[in-house]
Design brief:
This protein has a domain of 68 residues. The protein is 37% helix and 24% strand. The chain contains three helices and six strands; from the N terminus they run βββββαααβ. β3 and β4 form a beta hairpin.
Length: 104
């Protein structure tokens, strides 16, 4: 699997992953999840952390939305709007990349 380092446009078909320079890590001292990037720390809320943990480069955004809709027995349309907005915001800031299969 290869990663593109350019900013991506998030759609339901996108397969987002954290960019190479970004790491999702649990900060033991503060007891919170953080995204670490050079010279920055972002502390996403619990729902954002859950979404980011599903951004594994295998699942696409549509699959992530479906998983969350089932898990929370919530309206898929509402979840879709929120998930796509959050992922687009992170993509615009350079925190996300899109995974692609390597084809010979």
């Amino acid at each position: 699997m290869a990663l593109r380092n350019r900013r991506i446009d998030i759609t339901e078909g996108s397969r987002p992953v954290l960019a190479r320079h970004a790491k999702l890590k649990f900060d033991e001292a503060r007891q919170v999840w953080v995204i670490l990037v050079p010279e920055k720390v972002l502390a996403p809320d619990e729902i954002a952390v859950e979404i980011l943990q599903l951004c594994d480069g295998v699942r696409n955004v549509d699959q992530i939305i479906n998983e969350l809709a089932v898990k929370y027995a919530a309206d898929r349309g509402i979840i879709s709007v929120d998930v796509i907005a959050m992922l687009r915001d992170l993509a615009e800031k350079g925190f996300l990349a899109e995974a692609q299969d390597i084809r010979p």
